């Protein structure tokens, strides 16, 4: 053993001598094995200086460094971000190349950049990989590439359609648009990558009309987080697929300061046991420059903090809350200094709402079970110009003083309030600027308040489907009233006495007012252009003042079964259209009809007691003439001379007369115009 130790000692010492570190200052190549590969110091310094100059130049000009700045060469190209119009243009350019290839006799083929490792180059200055100029053809007429060529064409088509519609989808969404063709998502993803390398990615997307949150991976709300440049408007649907506040925050909506219109929508018909809407909406807090906000199908009983406190909405002009069925209170210190339009619909349990809307002009309250929000909001407003109240089930009356501070109110609509029985007198009394008043679908409303005569600016008065309404208190007339339609007021017996004083009235429409027996107009309405009366079974005559309506252009009478005559003695110089139909007792046309020389359309149909028609020789402007199904008619004044004068006639329809009237006088249309419709009713 001792001998062995003695023999090992010199070997160990020799080995240690061999492994001794060389002198660092020595020129021995064993110490610097890669020395020959190093660049000289001046060249390294020059390279750093060039990079520093390029970086400084880029920073000073706020210009992104590109391949051209680095003079890498024309053999490489960078995959850059493109906006939607550029993507569309690139796709259209690709298809033009394909068409040119076909026309040149080279067949249907796509030229796609090669993504092989040999065609990639890492540029450290850009910290990215760029592609060299190598491409490959993907011909359709080749067994090995026909499938990829087909998929490429389909992918390009889908992307182009999505760009046109401003729709954002994930790769998975794209795959499901044509599962039979793609078969496997890896195939569509691969082709999509080819396309994106060919024309850039969409991370610079600026316009996105709507985004649908899905349950699958790749369709979550976090997909919005990377779209930093979104602007304009965006609607986000199916927010029930967002789990919690943290996931909602990943959308980073507060950072997207160029979005001006935003819509949040949850799906309907969800289980009430799962309700995290408030937390999700908390995480989706937008930026303070938002102009329009819509919230649909929100199911929590309270709004998140950013909706009830602070001054987040310094620029908000329109706010819509639709179908928040569980919302009970919407109170707090939230300030809406610029809000101009507020829409509340189907918030059945809402008991209170904010009152500070210093600029609010349009208020719509729709489908609510209580009138509390109306009182809370409207009584504090001073700037309101438009108010719409719809589908209020338990609203029995409009509260007093609700509009007393809104001197500029110009539009008031009360619609589908089945329990409404009265309207407080001062509701109209303080609306001196009101121009349009519409009352629709209030079957229990019996009368309107007397304050109507104070509406000196009223231009439009519309009353529809108020079955119990007995009178309309217009006694002094409205000099500014232009339009006055009355529909289905079954208990209304007479029209307002002051109707004749409405000297600006242009349209008067009376329909389904079965108890009206007369219309009191004796001196005429000088501005009346259209008079339509229908389904008034008790009406036996038209007003004598009708002949003084010198501006009347359209006169239509339908289903007035007791009407016997029309008082036109001297003609109506402006009348262009006269229609009388389904008037069972109507027996004769007025002699003054021949003086209506501007008449273009004359239609007399289904009047079984009509026996005679006066001369029509002077009606040379007729373009359409219809006389049929008048069983008692014994004579038709259609002479050859009259026919020859109808140079403008386009449509003629006659027949269905008295059974002993077997033939017509010779009637040969002699004008230059072509009668496109001509028929005889047996």
From TrEMBL:
Domain Disease resistance R13L4/SHOC-2-like LRR: 498-653
Residues at the active site: 176
Keywords carried by this UniProt record: DNA-binding, Isomerase, Leucine-rich repeat, Plant defense, Repeat, Topoisomerase
Substrates-to-products reaction catalysed: ATP-dependent breakage, passage and rejoining of double-stranded DNA
GO CC annotations, alphabetized: chromosome
GO biological process: defense response; DNA metabolic process
Top-level taxon of the source organism: Eukaryota
Span of domain Spo11/DNA topoisomerase VI subunit A N-terminal: 147-196
Disordered as annotated region, ranges: 1-35
MF annotations from Gene Ontology: ATP binding; DNA binding; DNA topoisomerase type II (double strand cut, ATP-hydrolyzing) activity
rRNA-binding keyword on record: no
InterPro entries xref list: Leu-rich_rpt_Cys-con_subtyp, LRR_dom_sf, LRR_R13L1-DRL21, LRR_R13L4/SHOC2-like, Spo11/TopoVI_A_N, Spo11/TopoVI_A_sf, WH-like_DNA-bd_sf
Entry keyword annotation includes Cell membrane: no
Residue intervals of the R13L1/DRL21-like LRR repeat region domain: 221-327
PANTHER family, per database record: DISEASE RESISTANCE PROTEIN RGA4, PLANT BROAD-SPECTRUM MILDEW RESISTANCE PROTEIN RPW8
Homology family: Belongs to the TOP6A family.
Protein name, entry field: Disease resistance protein RGA1
Species whose genome carries this gene: Prunus avium
């Amino acid at each position: 053993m001792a001998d062995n130790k003695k023999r090992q000692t010199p070997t160990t010492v020799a080995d240690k001598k061999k492994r001794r570190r060389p002198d660092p200052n020595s020129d021995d190549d064993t110490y610097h094995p890669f020395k020959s590969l190093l660049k000289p110091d001046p060249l390294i310094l020059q390279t750093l200086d060039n990079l520093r100059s390029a970086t400084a130049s880029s920073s000073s000009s706020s210009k992104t460094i590109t391949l051209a700045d680095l003079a890498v060469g024309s053999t490489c190209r960078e995959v850059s971000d493109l906006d939607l119009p550029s993507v569309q243009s690139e796709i259209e350019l690709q298809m033009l190349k394909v068409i040119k290839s076909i026309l040149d006799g080279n067949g249907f083929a796509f030229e796609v950049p090669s993504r092989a490792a040999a065609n990639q180059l890492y540029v450290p200055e850009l910290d990215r990989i760029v592609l060299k100029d190598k491409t490959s053809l993907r011909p359709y007429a080749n067994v090995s590439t026909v499938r990829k060529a087909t998929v490429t064409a389909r992918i390009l088509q889908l992307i182009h359609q999505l760009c046109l519609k401003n729709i954002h989808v994930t790769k998975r969404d794209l795959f499901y648009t044509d599962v039979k063709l793609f078969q496997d998502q890896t195939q569509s993803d691969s082709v999509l990558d080819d396309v994106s390398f060919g024309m850039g990615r969409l991370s610079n997307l600026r316009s996105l009309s709507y985004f649908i949150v899905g349950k699958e991976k790749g369709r979550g709300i976090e997909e919005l987080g990377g779209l930093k440049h979104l602007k304009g408007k965006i609607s986000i649907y199916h927010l029930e697929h967002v789990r919690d506040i943290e996931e909602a925050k990943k959308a980073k909506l507060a950072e997207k300061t160029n979005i001006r219109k935003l819509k949040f929508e949850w799906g309907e018909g969800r289980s009430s046991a799962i309700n995290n809407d408030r937390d999700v909406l908390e995480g989706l807090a937008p930026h303070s420059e938002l102009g329009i906000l819509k919230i649909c199908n929100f199911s929590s009983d309270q709004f998140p903090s950013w909706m009830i406190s602070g001054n987040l909405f310094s620029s908000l002009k329109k706010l819509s809350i639709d179908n928040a069925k569980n919302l009970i209170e919407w109170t707090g210190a939230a300030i809406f200094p610029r809000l101009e339009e507020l829409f509340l619909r189907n918030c059945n349990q809402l008991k209170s709402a904010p009152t500070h809307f210093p600029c609010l002009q349009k208020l719509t309250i729709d489908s609510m079970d209580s009138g509390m929000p109306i009182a809370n909001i409207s009584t504090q407003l001073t700037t309101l110009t438009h108010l719409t109240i719809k589908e209020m089930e338990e609203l029995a009356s409009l509260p007093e003083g609700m509009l007393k501070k809104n001197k500029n109110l110009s539009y008031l609509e009360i619609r589908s309030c089945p329990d409404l029985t009265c309207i407080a007198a001062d509701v109209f009394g303080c609306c001196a600027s009101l121009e349009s008043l519409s009352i629709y679908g209030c079957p229990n409303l019996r009368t309107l308040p007397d304050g109507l005569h104070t509406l000196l600016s009223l231009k439009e008065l519309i009353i529809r489907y108020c079955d119990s309404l007995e009178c309309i208190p217009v006694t002094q007339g409205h000099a500014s009233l232009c339009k006055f339609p009355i529909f289905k007021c079954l208990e209304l017996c007479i029209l307002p006495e002051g109707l004749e004083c409405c000297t600006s009235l242009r349209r008067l429409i009376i329909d389904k007012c079965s108890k009206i027996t007369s219309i009191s107009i004796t001196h005429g309405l000088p501005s009346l252009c259209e008079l339509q009366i229908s389904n008034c079974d008790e009406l036996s005559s038209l007003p004598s003042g009708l002949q003084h309506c010198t501006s009347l252009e359209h006169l239509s009478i339908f289903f007035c079964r007791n009407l016997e005559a029309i008082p036109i003695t001297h003609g109506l110089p402006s009348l262009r259209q006269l229609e009388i139909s389904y008037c069972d007792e109507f027996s004769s046309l007025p002699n003054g009809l021949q003086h209506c020389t501007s008449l273009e359309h004359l239609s007399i149909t289904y009047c079984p007691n009509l026996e005679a028609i006066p001369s029509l020789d002077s009606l040379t402007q007729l373009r359409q003439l219809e006389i049929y199904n008048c069983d008692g008619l014994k004579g038709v004044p259609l002479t050859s001379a009259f026919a020859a004068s109808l140079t403008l006639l386009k449509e003629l329809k006659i027949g269905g007369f008295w059974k002993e009237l077997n033939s017509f006088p010779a009637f040969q249309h002699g004008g230059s115009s072509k009668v496109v419709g001509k028929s005889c009713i047996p």
